[in-house]
Amino acid sequence: MKADQRHATSRLISGYIIDNLRDPRFEVTPAFVMVEMHKLHGLDIGYHKTWRAIQHASALIRGTPKENYELLSSYLYMMKSKNPGTYTNIKIDDNNRFLYMFYAYGSSIAGWNHCRPVIAIDATFLKHQSIAHGIAKVYPESHHGICIYHLEQNLKRRKVKSEVIKLFQSAARVYMHKEFDLYMSDISKVDKKTFDYLMEEPPERWARSCSPRRIYDMLTTNIVESMNSVLLEARELPILRMMDFIQVKLQRWFYERRNEAEGTFYDVSCWVEEELKKNIDLAFTLNVFPVDSWCSRVEEQGVTFLMDLNKRTCDCFQFQFDELPCIHAIAAIDKRNIKKSNFCSDWYLKKSWLKTYERQIHPVGHKDSWIVPESVKSKIIKPPDFKVLPDYYLDFQKFRTFQKNMS
Ligand SMILES: [Zn+2]
């Protein structure tokens, strides 16, 4: 390619990126720009070049990396002023260099009060024990479970046979302790080594039936994995641009979920409605024998379960573990012609869903419009020591592989 041609291409990319960076509807990531440039102009641009072009264009809008860090204190100040209740905390080293940062929007903090009290943390972050310690300090009653997906991956790496892995999955998922014991004794019979390996980790940490706390349906950290994949490409953007990206993303999620919650005709969330519906057909095949106004004996394939609507418990344990009616409860509720939503935990109600996404996530707006006290403006933070960053941060393929190996 000739020099002037190369120059024209660069200008084309920069122009395109700048137009779209300003448009909050688009997430300008290298992958996005590469696809768009191919689609619009038939250009095949390498990842590295696209990445640099985005850095360059971002710098024009939100400043260079150095300027980004210099503005960080002011940005956080504006974030808090536009979003009351927002919490931010930055750690810097002795030379004022950025080390790490934590922040939570006021709207997220308020919404969390209406969510099931489960915190999922990526395994990569848990290597920093301080997070686990921090949670134990803030929530002394909390129970630390581990992700069964990751545990299963460990079994696969140890070349455990698939039939044993299936037994493990059942052992982890069943609600009744009795059933857990049966699956575990099966495992010990076919593969004693794997049984011992599993028991090294206390079952309270990975088996639902042994957990001392409600873990609902959250046996894995999938939710973190999906969050990570959303943020993966934004991580490569300059810090303020990345924070803009997160703000736009959260704002959109809050808006979409609020809309969905407002639009539903049910008293429970759509997910719960689906879960209940899935079980209705099966519930109809069960025999229900009322014992008193709350209790029923429910027969399923010759096995009797005692179910109590007042205490919201059932012999199958699912009612009390998930805080949602199990099939036995559904059968009993239908027999009495009452609303199933009366027996779902508050976490699952439409009103909680609405409360979770009640508030908005506001952008900080253009720098020129900021009103920041001098004491905040003068807190200049320096960029982190980039020399310590491995160069795979610049190489997308290697970065992806690195990510995969870490998880
Ligand atoms: Zn039941």
Q: How does this structure look, described?
A:
Strand 1 and strand 2 form a beta hairpin. The C terminus is likely disordered. This protein is of the alpha+beta class. It has 19 helices and 6 strands. The two termini are 40 Å apart. The structure holds zinc ion. The site of zinc ion has 9 residues, from strand 5, helix 15 and helix 16.
Task: List the SSEs and their pairings.
Layout: H1 3-21, H2 30-41, H3 47-62, H4 65-82, E1 87-92, E2 98-104, H5 106-112, H6 123-126, H7 129-138, H8 148-157, H9 162-173, H10 177-190, H11 192-199, H12 222-232, H13 239-263, H14 270-284, E3 287-290, E4 295-300, E5 303-308, E6 313-314, H15 318-322, H16 327-336, H17 350-356, H18 374-377, H19 396-406
Antiparallel strand pairs: 1-2, 3-4, 4-5, 5-6
This protein binds zinc ion (ZN).
Please sum up the structure shown.
The chain is an alpha+beta fold. It is built from 19 helices and 6 strands. The strands form 2 sheets. A 4-stranded antiparallel sheet has the order 3-4-5-6.
Following the backbone from N to C, one meets helices and strands in this order, namely HHHHEEHHHHHHHHHHEEEEHHHHH
Proportion of helical residues: 40-55%
Low-confidence stretches: 388-407
Given the helix and strand composition, which structural class is it? Answer: alpha+beta
Which short descriptors sum up this protein?
407 residues, alpha+beta, 6 strands, elongated, disordered C terminus, binds zinc ion
